[in-house]
Amino acid sequence: MFELSVKDIVRITSGKLLCGDENVLVKGICANSKEIKEGNLFVPIIGEKVDAHIYIESALEIGAATLTSRHFDVVIADKPYIQVHDTIKAMQDIGAYIRTMYKKPVVAVTGSVGKTTTREMIASALAGNLNVYQTKKNYNSQVGVPITLSELDENADVAVLELGISNDGQMQILSNMVKPDICVVTVIGVAHIEFLKTQENIRREKLDITSHMNKDGILLLNGDDELLAQMKGKTGVKTMFYGTSDWCDFRAENIRMEENMLVYDYVHGEKREKVALNVLGKHNVINSLTGMAISDCMKLDLGNAAKGFSSFAGLRQQIININDKYTIIDDTYNASPDSMKASIDVLAEMETTGKKIAILGDMFELGENSERYHYEVGTYLAGKNVDELVVVGELSQQIVKGVKDAESSIKCNILKDNGEVTLFLMSVMAEGDVVLIKGSNGMNMGQIVSNIVGKKEEIL
Questions:
Q1: Does residue 53 lie in a domain region?
Q2: What is the pLDDT of residues 412-429, one digit of tens each?
Q3: Are residues 221 and 267 in the same domain?
Q4: Which candidate, 127, 183, 133, 182, places its Cα nearest to that of 154?
Q5: 433 lies in some domain
Q6: CA-CA distance, 238 to 218, in Å (whole number)?
């Protein structure tokens, strides 16, 4: 982790030191007073409901210094207060400065779907050859990225960072901070279409990841995504494609199952390498392909890169076996139409002696066509090898409508809340059953997993 003095921070942010010693050293940025560590700089953010300036005193009981945009007079305190115009902009300036101190390659990942899994898979592949630093938790936003940069391991051989946006202009800011050497765009879906209005706008915004890319950098695009495939020859930067199509530069061929593992052949020119994954779903083949492609671009040993996936389990889609009787696919972190369909594919492809049950909740931030997107998930589900559907939430009732309009034999249930879903599952699950649980974060469907598996908070 890079170390800065308070004097450095004042200079970087064009701030003013209101009190305290300018020689105090700071390591890391923290925007949550409950998580602050010794040596951290506290950044109070003014939110819609809470102005975190009220937590400065408690944060400084542990932290080394604080930014402030609310104190305009002399402050009497033992620790440094640094006055800035905008605390978020100031922390972004600090993040960008730290990036200039890091002289190793930086990989940046974005997309509507699969950002986190792709970032984790890239890190796994690169870790077969290198010491890797990657985004922690879900710190991929306007606030999260500078925190991630502030914790950069200066000894890491490569950094793999995740960039997430929800509105116009945000990717420019993130790219300026990160200044990537290799950029990856996974999929152009409809997540955040409520704010960006069209998929073309989403694509434009995502491709702004290259706006501050190294001039000799490489943009990797998913050739299996129609909207990204259309950008061949149109990006203005060195661009290469990955996917299953014959024309892609980096390809996955001969996708198959071997000894309960998902296996494919990585192909680039005359190079071929067998890759085996512990996770299911064709989308994960595509996600892992980026790790192989980047390892190839960096001229690393591809055999070691492939071995890097051996311990990969992912943080998103968790396969939980309960008492060797039934299986839960916990995919409750978030949901969009594309990720919902990918998870349905995983459920449909699983081998089981029992029923396949999909528990699906509302998907948020889909704008005025939200009901249509839910309906389309239903029509997609109707053609899959699934026995029963349970939905919770008002919008997800359109999923049921899509299934029924397709005259599917899938049994449909509409339940009122997560508690009712839990009781339903406890009464119907039998040996050999596989249950997919998925919905947007705001649906709190992890509560269902909590009650079934006993690993998370209980429903009140």
A1: yes
A2: 999 999 999 999 999 999
A3: yes
A4: 133
A5: yes
A6: 5
